[in-house]
Amino acid sequence: GAGVSQSPSNKVTEKGKDVELRCDPISGHTALYWYRQSLGQGLEFLIYFQGNSAPDKSGLPSDRFSAERTGGSVSTLTIQRTQQEDSAVYLCASRRQGGAEAFFGQGTRLTVV
Amino acid sequence: QKEVEQNSGPLSVPEGAIASLNCTYSDRGSQSFFWYRQYSGKSPELIMFIYSNGDKEDGRFTAQLNKASQYVSLLIRDSQPSDSATYLCAVKVGGGNKLTFGTGTQLKVEL
Q1: What's the CA gap between B84 and B55, in Å, rounded?
Q2: pLDDT of A41-88, one tens digit each?
Q3: Is B49 close to A56, i.e. CB distance below 8 A?
């Protein structure tokens, strides 16, 4: 595709529910990142995928968070039993192998009520 | 100590002036440095990256890196109102994957 696509753009969910956020990276990009940005804050690293290598999960804040990347393309970030502190914009970025620039999607704004 | 530190601002400069944005980092193993611009409600977009000590210029933008002082800066010459945004500094350590971001500096260019 022309850019990194994320869906949904907005999600409101009740506390305790599970949510799935989707990221469709730029075609051919082997690296994929998930970040979280709370209001007025910087970007918090969550997880990184590179090709078929084991993902770097060092940024996931708790075991309620998980992510997968099927076929080296689309990625899904799942948050189980959502809490109010999970409310943030979740950003996905992709990068071609050897490239310097990570291209960001428009993000999913998650609100837990 | 935060891994990447930036003054949150806002930094206000008059149109046409030079805006100077600063960033310090804690990990001496850091090797790649990036400046992203983020408009309100939008996603970050890369402005410049720098790997080597010294200056790197691209149009009105100059990135400056001093690894001994663990300091990277971004200069914007002839600042325009359209430059008003939050500027995020990001650092990648060695061969690692994680891109660590600062909290950003808000720049306001006033007419």
Answers
A1: 23
A2: 789 999 999 988 899 999 999 999 999 998 879 999 999 999 999 999
A3: no
